[in-house]
Specification:
The chain contains seven helices and two strands, in the order αααααααββ. The chain is mainly alpha-helical. The chain has a two-stranded antiparallel ribbon with strand order 1-2. α6 crosses α7. The longest helix has 20 residues. It is elongated. The chain starts with a helix and ends in an 11-residue tail after the last strand.
């Protein structure tokens, strides 16, 4: 757990303890209201053991709006990074989606080699791109025609919208 998350959980626990005390509730009282053991409640108040279910139970039982805990923006920095291979795959998929959904590139039939050239990607990715393009065919965005020992891909329906646009 990052230091920021630890501090945030400690702050949330302190906020729950403060509210519990304002209501003159003991840990046993809150346990009876929520079904959460007093040991777990004690841990939550110290910044440990907080699950989303317990968070919502405590908010409801102590009459605290969940949004009150998150008035300030949280800076999102994952504790780990993706490997370079995964980052490259994501980058390639974004470029290919752009080409398929948001350009007229596939209005004319294209071979895998032409797609690779357009995206400035090495020809060693040819087999991967055949698989990628086949996935677009399976969803109905692209269609292909067999031309000897290679396929030509084209838009199957020019009025088809990208998945995020429904």
């Amino acid at each position: 757990m990052t230091d920021n998350n630890k501090l945030r959980l400690e702050w949330i626990g302190l906020r729950f303890r403060t509210r519990r005390n304002e209501l003159y509730y003991s840990l046993r009282d809150v346990s009876n209201l929520t079904g959460i053991s007093t040991g777990t409640l004690n841990g939550i108040e110290k910044g440990r053991d907080l699950t989303m279910t317990n968070f919502l139970l405590l908010c409801h039982s102590l009459e605290i709006q969940p949004k009150d805990f998150f008035q300030d923006d949280i800076t999102f920095n994952p504790p780990y990074s993706l490997s370079p291979d995964v980052q490259e795959r994501i980058s390639i998929n974004k470029k290919l989606d752009q080409l398929v959904y948001h350009s007229d590139f596939f209005h004319q039939p294209k071979r895998v080699a032409e797609v690779l050239h357009k995206l400035e990607i090495d020809k060693t990715y040819s087999n991967k791109f055949s698989v990628y393009l086949s996935a677009y065919c399976e969803e109905g965005t692209l269609a292909y025609e067999q031309q000897g020992n290679y396929k030509e891909y084209r838009k199957s329906d020019p009025t088809l919208k990208s998945p995020e646009n429904g």
